[in-house]
């Protein structure tokens, strides 16, 4: 393995000269609101938790991509919003030796999975600092979500083709 500092040591070399590296993990944006505080703390804590996930990616240069995982958590108690927490966790990834389909797959499934633990920790920290019980988000199967999204995109393309 090549010598490097910190995150540069995360480089992995695969078959046929493929290389994947997490160059940087960063917190792009956070938001926490507790609109009903402090009154909400007097309610029995039986929240309805809604979690929304989103990903976006952009090419920064040759073989370098920025991926942002957005997680929005809304907790409601008796139809009142206890808190709304949103984290946009970013990462810069370097990829060499992959074809376009492989890169799309890495950006859509593998990279968000690498960012998830960081986002999960940030959400838990914000929720606890907001005065609420800890929130440990369940693991997410980004591979399955990616495949579902591709399947839906394929169905949409087929429907558009049949309409013409």
UniProtKB/TrEMBL annotation:
It is found in: Cytoplasm. The keyword Protein transport applies. It comes from the Bacteria. Keywords: Chaperone, Cytoplasm, Protein transport, Translocation, Transport. Its main location: cytoplasm. Homotetramer, a dimer of dimers. One homotetramer interacts with 1 SecA dimer. Belongs to the SecB family. One of the proteins required for the normal export of preproteins out of the cell cytoplasm. It is a molecular chaperone that binds to a subset of precursor proteins, maintaining them in a translocation-competent state. It also specifically binds to its receptor SecA. This is Protein-export protein SecB.
């Amino acid at each position: 393995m090549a010598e490097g500092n910190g995150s540069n040591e995360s480089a992995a070399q695969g078959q046929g000269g493929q290389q994947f590296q997490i160059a940087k993990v960063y917190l792009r944006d956070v938001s926490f609101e507790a609109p009903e505080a402090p009154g909400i703390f007097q309610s029995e804590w039986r929240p309805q938790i809604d979690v929304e996930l989103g990903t976006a990616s952009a090419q920064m240069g040759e073989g370098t991509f920025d991926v942002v995982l957005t997680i929005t958590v809304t907790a409601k108690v008796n139809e009142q919003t206890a808190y709304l927490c949103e984290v946009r966790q970013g990462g810069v990834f370097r990829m060499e030796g992959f074809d376009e389909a492989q890169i799309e797959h890495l950006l859509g499934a593998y990279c968000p999975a690498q960012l998830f633990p960081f986002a999960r920790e940030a959400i838990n920290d914000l929720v606890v600092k907001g005065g609420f019980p800890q929130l440990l988000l369940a693991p997410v199967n980004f591979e399955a979500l990616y495949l579902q999204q591709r399947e839906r995109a394929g169905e949409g393309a087929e429907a558009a083709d049949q309409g013409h």
